[in-house]
User: Fold this.
Amino acid sequence: MMKPLLVLGAVVGTLSCGAVLAQQVVNKPAPPKKAVTKQEAAKSTKDATTAEFEKFREVLEADSPAELFEAKGEDIWKNKRGPDGGSMAQCDLGLGAGVVRGAYVQMPRYFADADKVMDAERRVVHCMTRYLGYQEADIRKQPFSNEQNTPDHVSVVTYVASQSRGMAVAVPQKHPREREAYELGKAVFAYRAGPYDFSCETCHGDDGKRIRMQQLPNLAKKEDAMKSFQGWPGYRMTGGFMLTQQWRMNDCFRQQRFPEPKYLSDAVTTLLTYLTVNANGNVYKGPGVKR
Amino acid sequence: MNNIIKTSMLLSAALLLPQPAQADKDYRSEAIAMLKRDFQPRGIASVDRLDEDGLQAVCNRSANNPPKEVAQRLEQDQMAAVKLPADGKLLGDWKSGERIAQSGRGFTWTDKPGLPVGGNCYNCHQISPAETSFGTLGPSLFHFGKLRGNGPDMQKYVYTKIYNAKAHNLCSAMPRFGHVGALNEAQIKDLVALLLDLNSPVNK
Assistant:
C-alpha cells in the first residue's frame, strides 16, 4: 500500500480546496517519536492517524467533491448524445431499460445481451459504446482518471453509484454464470504466484492487519468485505479526481507484483463478484472520499 | 531411499495431481486459464509471473496447509538452495540495513528495472522503535537480538529466513528475497545486522 500521509502532502491537487485540506491533515497528527512499549507505540500512532483521517473524511463527505462528477455523469446519462439520438435511457443495468435507482448495488450480474457477467463499470462502458457512440478503443486508451482528466465513463459510473446511496448491497447469485463468477473470483483471491508469492489473501485474509499504517480488511469476511465496496467510486484527495473499483483492483494487482489485468476483463469482474457478494446486506453510502 | 522420503514424495506427487472430481467444477484450473487470458505484461511485470512454481502450487492446492511430511521435505529443498556468503560473515552494517528495511520499492510494473530493490520490512514488521509506521502482517522484530541472542546459529537462522522464509515455513506469507534475487548478499547481511547487532536501535 501507499504511505498515505507522506503522499498526501507531496501531490498537488487540481482542486485547491482538496489540496489545502490535505495539507492540514499532514500537519496535524504528530506520531509519538519516542517509542514507549512496542504495543503502546503501535496503538497510539494508529489511533492518532486513523482518527484524524476519519474526521477529515467525514467533513469532506458531508459536502463531497464527488458530486461534481455525479452531476457530469447525470448529464451524460440523461441527454440524447448518441449519433442516432441514442441515450442511456436504453441502457439496462439489470433492472430494466433506463432504470438507475438501485442498480449499482445489484452488480456484478449476468447480462444476457452480452452473455457476460458484468460489474457496474463494465456495463456502463458497454452501454456508452452501444448507445452513445463512444469507441471502446478510445476508452481503453485512458480507462482510469488522472490529474488531467476524469474520463466520461468514470463520471457515469459515479452517477450510477450515487443512485444507490443508502441501499443495501444485493448482488444476485441466481444465474449459474453468477455463481460461477463468484467461485472463479474466490479462486483468483486465493491464487499465490509472482516473485513475492502473494495472493490477495496474503494481505486480506486475516483480521486486524496493516501494511505500514494502512488497515487491511479481511475481505473473505462479511463485516470487512464491505470495505472493498464502500466509498467507491472515490474522490481521491491527493489529486482531485474520481477512481473506481476497476482502478482499485488494478492497483492491488500492481502491488501484488502481478502483471496488469486487462481493463474490463473477466478476471477483474469475477474478483469483484466474489468481494461484493461477500458484502451483501451492508448499506452503501454512495460515492466517497479516498486518501 | 528411506521410507520417510519415499512417503513424502508420494504425498507430494498426489498433491500435485489434478484434484479428484468434486461435486462442482474445477474452478481452480478454470481460474488459472482465465488469469492467463486476462493479464498483459506491463513494465518489468511479465505474464510468466502468473505461472506457479512447485512450492506455490503445493501451497495453493493445500490452502497453505500441506501435509507435514510434504512441507518438511520441500522446506529442505528450499534450504538446500540457500547460498550462504563465501566469506562466512553474516553480519553487515545495521545502518544500511535500516535503509533497506524502509524501502518498499521493487518488482511492481511501475518500478524501473535494475534499481536496487527494497526489503519491504516495515510494511509488515515493527523493527526499530523510531519508526512508528509499521505493518502487522508479520511479528514484531523489536528487541530481536536482545531477546534471542546473536550467536552464529541465530545469525544463520536470520540470514536464511530473509534469503528464503519458505525454507523454515513452507507456505509463509513472507517473500523469498534471496531466492528470487530481490535482495543480494550484502543487503541481506545488512538486514541481519539490523536485527542482531547489539548497537542497532532494534536492540537498545
Chain A has a mean pLDDT of 86.
